C-alpha cells in the first residue's frame, strides 16, 4: 500500500444530541480515488469538511498529508470543491479566476498561464469571458472545479461534484479527474450516484454517521454476491436514495 494521504482516527461529531459521525476510522493512500457513498444526511459533507480543515471533530482526529487538521500548511495543498458553488455571479469567469488565484498569491504570467491550464482541464476555455450568471449549472460546477485546481493541489476533496449534471457532462468531468489522478493527485469524492461510485478505486459506504463497509467496488459486490454497488449497499444496511 502507498503512503497514507488521509488518516481518520476514531472521529465522531455531535451537534447537540445528534450524532452525525460515529467513530469513523479510515486510511486513504496517496494516489487513490476514494468515494464516500451514502444517502442524504449520512454525514459525508460533515466528514469531508473536516478533512478540508473547515470543521472540527467532537472527538478523534484527522491527519491529512501528514498534518493534524486543521492545519494551514496542509490546507494550502488541498483543493476543496463544496457542494454549492461559491462563485461571483456578476463577474466573468476570468474575473472569478483572477480573484481566487490572487488569493493563492499567483500573479502576472504565471497566473495567466495557470488560468488557461485549469480552464482547459474542465473544457471551458472558450467561455472564459462570459459572466458567471450566464453559465449553466454544469458549467458552474466545472468552473468551481477549475478554481479548486488553481494552486495545483496534491489532494482534491470534492463534495458531490456532479450533482445535477447530465451523464455526458459527468463523463467529461470524470475524465478530468482521471487525468489529474494519473498525474498523482489523490481524490476523495462524495456521491450518492451509483455509477459514479463504480469509477472509484475504493469506496466507503456511509449510513447514519457510520462507515458500514470499505473496499473496492469489485470486492464489495463479490462479498455480498451482488451484481451492482446499489445491491451491495443495501446488503450493508444502506437506504436506496430517492433521487
Ligand atoms: N451545523 C450543523 N448543525 C446541526 N446539524 C448539522 C449541521 N451540519 C450538518 N448537520 C446534520 O448532520 C447530518 C449529516 O449531514 P451531512 O450534510 O454531513 O450529510 P450528507 O451525507 O453530506 O448529506 P447530503 O448528501 O444531503 O449533503 C444531517 O442530519 C444534518 O442535518
UniProtKB/TrEMBL annotation:
The UniProt entry, under PROSITE patterns, shows:
ABC_TRANSPORTER_1, ABC_TRANSPORTER_2
Keyword annotations of the record: ATP-binding, Nucleotide-binding
Nucleotide-binding keyword on record: yes
The protein's matches in Gene3D superfamilies, at most eight in alphabetical order, are given as: P-loop containing nucleotide triphosphate hydrolases (3.40.50.300)
Q: Which residues form a coiled coil?
A: none
Any matching Pfam family: ABC_tran
Could you tell me which residue ranges the ABC transporter domain spans? 6-233
Identify the domain of life.
Bacteria
Q: Which GO terms describe its molecular function?
A: ATP binding; ATP hydrolysis activity
Q: Where are the transmembrane segments?
A: none
- Its protein name is ABC transporter ATP-binding protein
Give the organism the record lists. Answer: Ornithinibacillus halotolerans
Amino acid at each position: 500500500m502507498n503512503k497514507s494521504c488521509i488518516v481518520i482516527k476514531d472521529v465522531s461529531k455531535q451537534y447537540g444530541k445528534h450524532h452525525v459521525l460515529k467513530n469513523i476510522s479510515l486510511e486513504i493512500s496517496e494516489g487513490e480515488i476514494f468515494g464516500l457513498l451514502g444517502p442524504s444526511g449520512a454525514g459525508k459533507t460533515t466528514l469531508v469538511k473536516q478533512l478540508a480543515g473547515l470543521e472540527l471533530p467532537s472527538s478523534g482526529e484527522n491527519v491529512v498529508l501528514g498534518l493534524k487538521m486543521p492545519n494551514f500548511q496542509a490546507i494550502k495543498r488541498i483543493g476543496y470543491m463544496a457542494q454549492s458553488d461559491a462563485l461571483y455571479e456578476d463577474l466573468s469567469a476570468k474575473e472569478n479566476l483572477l480573484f481566487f488565484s490572487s488569493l493563492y498569491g499567483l500573479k502576472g504570467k504565471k497566473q495567466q498561464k495557470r488560468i488557461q491550464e485549469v480552464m482547459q482541464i474542465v473544457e471551458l476555455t472558450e467561455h472564459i469571458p462570459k459572466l458567471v450568471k450566464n453559465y449553466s449549472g454544469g458549467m458552474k460546477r466545472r468552473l468551481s472545479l477549475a478554481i479548486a485546481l488553481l494552486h495545483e493541489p496534491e489532494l482534491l476533496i470534492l463534495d458531490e461534484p456532479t450533482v445535477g449534471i447530465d451523464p455526458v457532462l459527468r463523463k467529461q468531468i470524470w475524465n478530468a479527474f482521471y487525468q489529474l489522478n494519473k498525474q498523482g493527485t489523490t481524490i476523495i469524492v462524495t456521491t450518492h450516484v451509483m455509477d459514479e461510485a463504480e469509477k472509484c478505486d475504493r469506496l466507503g459506504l456511509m449510513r447514519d454517521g457510520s462507515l458500514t463497509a470499505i473496499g473496492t467496488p469489485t470486492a464489495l459486490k463479490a462479498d455480498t454476491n451482488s451484481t451492482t454497488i446499489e445491491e451491495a449497499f443495501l446488503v450493508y444496511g444502506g437506504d436506496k436514495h430517492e433521487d
